[in-house]
Amino acid sequence: MSKQVSNLEKTDKNKERKVKNRKQKEGARGKHYYANNHKFCKENNALPDEFTNKIICGDLQVVLKQLPDNCIDLIFTSPPYNFGLDYENTEDAFAWDSYFKALFGVFDECIRVLKYGGRIVVNVQPLFSDYIPTHHLISQHFMHRNLIWKGEILWEKNHYNCKYTAWGSWKSPSSPYLKYTGEFLEIFCKGSLKKTGSSKNADIDGESFKAWVTAKWTIAPERNMRKFKHPAMFPEELANRVLKLFSFRGDVILDPFAGVGTTCLSAFKLQRPYLGIDISPEYCQVAEDRLRVLPLFRDIVEFPPFLQAYERQNSKIDTK
Question: All domains of the chain, ordered by start, with CATH?
Fold first, then answer.
């Protein structure tokens, strides 16, 4: 009987398999070897006041070049997917080489302004009909720029937009077309996996932490895209999780493809300074309008000083 119990213990799938001398083995293999020869400066800078808590309408690279090095704690963004969607005043169907050249130019500026130890999280859905693994190509670019891959989260959208079709080969192995029910979040760090910050400024509870470090998030898609006239919004819950899991209260948040401001909205509510950039005046106006009404909830949310100043400033604006 004791031998049978011993065999059961060996095959107990609930028991975590331990690796002996894990740290030494990681060192021998070359942990994140592709990022170890970076030349990133460890000295971080403050985001200038003229860019703090602002939605700026303009060309991304022109605006980003005005920012100092190492001034942003977390970048969370979702670039145009190049699907041919009907964005406001913006083309979304470029030749792929042109698309990635422009996108990687923006990302290079993002890397420059990201603080040492800062994180960049990119939400993207590959265009499977073109067989372009956008999430992998973006990851390769960041790795070639010596950023450390921290992980990948699958955003499961509850079978949203996954209709049964006969695309590819029907009931044949010749060329089946795979359908996906989610999107990807690619997560990278600059210089160090560890981010400095005070534990008192961590605002994630234990249950959420345990649930969210499992790299599959089931979140319903945004339902108000028609209301805000934007074809590819992510839900506020997605931004909330990213900000709470990868940043502290008071950290500076940047969304260089801000759209109608969901990342900035989340940052405002979660007591984090923000900067949103977008080329569309219409989207920037919607983002401003969404942020402007938030001080109406001041009795519910305890705002830090920088938000109190924002409230005083906007209380003088005539909204008629």
Answer: 38-314 (3.40.50.150)
| Token representation of residue 108 | 């290079």
Structure tokens at 202: 């961590």
Q: At what angle do helices 262-269 and 236-246 cross, to 10 degrees?
A: 50
DSSP string computed for 135-161: HHHHHHHHHHTTPEEEEEEEEE-TTTT
Q: Is 263 exposed, middle or buried (0-12, 13-18, 19+ CB in 10 A)?
A: buried
Partners of 255 in beta bridges? 276
Q: Are 122 and 138 in contact (CB under 8 A)?
A: yes
Beta carbons of 80 and 232 less than 8 angstroms apart:
yes
Contacts of 149 (CB under 8 A, 6+ apart): 32, 139, 142, 143, 186, 187, 188
Give, for all 320 residues of the chain, the pLDDT tens digit: 555 545 545 555 556 677 787 778 777 888 999 999 999 999 999 999 999 999 999 999 999 999 999 999 999 999 988 744 454 555 555 788 998 999 999 999 999 999 999 999 999 988 777 888 999 999 999 999 999 999 999 999 875 555 555 556 777 888 887 778 889 999 999 999 999 999 999 999 999 999 999 999 999 886 765 655 555 678 999 999 999 999 999 999 999 999 899 999 999 999 999 999 999 899 899 899 889 887 643 443 344 444 444 344 433 333 32
Beta-carbon count within 10 A of 68 CB: 14
Q: Is the pTM of this model over 0.70?
A: yes
